[in-house]
Write a structure and sequence with these properties.
- By secondary structure, this protein is of the alpha/beta class.
- It has 5 helices and 8 strands, in the order ββαββαβααβββα.
- Strand 7 and strand 8 form a beta hairpin.
- Helix 4 runs parallel beside helix 5.
- The protein is globular.
- The two termini are about 25 Å apart.
Length: about 150
């Protein structure tokens, strides 16, 4: 069983009203509390973080796979979390889906794959869809398999 932490408000629009160091420490404290609670109640599932750029704030603390992996190493959470990589969020970060899959895989931190992507509307808004995939699924799976799910960091 997995439990996915899907960021929503972990970020900022401008550094003028943000103490980034404090906010990252608070986010790490929250994740440590989740780990402690999971141990307390006997939860044996895998915790996952889903990198999520630009939604809803301009600068998200969980922007992409590499950013989340750095966060996990920095705040001593490495052994407790893996990543849930979503196609749409990788492209919003300016990467290909294969890129974030590879970054997570070579670190041994690919925990789950979400193939959701966004279809732009004529007015600039977007909606999520999983009916037609804009990326070759075989290529994505091959890139994650080549890297291996038990990579070394």
């Amino acid at each position: 069983m997995n439990y996915v932490f899907w960021g929503e408000r972990e970020g900022y629009e401008t550094l003028l009203n943000t103490d980034m160091k404090r906010e990252l420490e608070q986010m790490a404290r929250f994740f440590h509390m989740a780990v402690d609670y999971a141990k307390q109640i006997g939860f044996e599932g895998q915790f996952l973080i889903e990198p999520k750029p630009k939604e809803p704030t301009k600068h998200q603390y969980d922007f992409d796979a590499a950013t989340v992996l750095h966060f996990l190493r920095t705040f001593d959470l490495w052994e407790h979390f893996k990543l849930n990589i979503e196609a749409n969020h990788a492209t919003l970060a300016g990467h290909t889906f294969e890129h974030d899959l590879t970054v997570a895989s070579i670190s041994g931190k690919l925990g789950s794959i979400d193939a959701m992507w966004a279809m732009p509307y004529w007015d600039g808004t977007r909606t999520s869809s999983s009916r037609t995939l804009p990326w070759p699924p075989g290529q994505c799976l091959l890139s994650s398999n080549r890297a291996g799910s038990e990579g070394e960091a």
